[in-house]
Specification:
single chain, 5 helices, elongated, 147 residues
Length: 147
């Protein structure tokens, strides 16, 4: 039977990334970069025109435009999602934990967004990416919980 380090990739520098780690890297880099791009576009055009996210979608919510969503999307979602793969690439010990937290947070954010502004197909896409990220981290996290 392989050791835990062999199954989930060594934290030592120079070791190859495990397949699950590569999946997490790809999912979280894509999600992080798109969150930063979306957030910056909301700051630049708070009415949402760049992303075709018209302010009419915000009817009934506490927001009149996307100005608050922009920095939140950039900093919280984008940086969290980009921080996890960076830590994973650097083989830092809590990388998979941050990746799981980032994926779970994205699922929660999409559920809240659905409740506040209603259905948007991007919620399904990004919520799904959060679930996939959680799933890719699950073997590692379950192994750690079991000890």
């Amino acid at each position: 039977m392989r050791s835990n380090a062999a199954q989930h990739g060594s934290q030592a520098g120079g070791a190859r990334l495990a397949a699950g780690d590569k999946t997490v890297l790809a999912l979280e880099v894509f999600t992080g970069l798109s969150a930063v791009a979306g957030g910056v576009s909301f700051v630049a055009t708070p009415e949402g025109s760049v992303l075709s996210m018209h302010t009419s979608l915000l009817a009934g919510s506490p927001f009149t435009d996307y100005l608050i969503a922009g920095p939140f999307l950039t900093v919280v979602v984008g940086m969290g999602m980009l921080g996890a793969p960076l830590m994973l690439f650097m083989r830092l010990p809590l990388a998979r934990d941050l990746a799981a937290i980032s994926g779970g947070s994205l699922v929660i954010i999409e559920i809240v967004e659905r409740a506040v502004i209603g259905f948007n197909p991007l919620e399904v896409l990004y919520g799904g990416l959060g679930v996939l990220s959680l799933g890719a981290c699950a073997p590692y996290c379950l192994t750690r919980v079991r000890g």
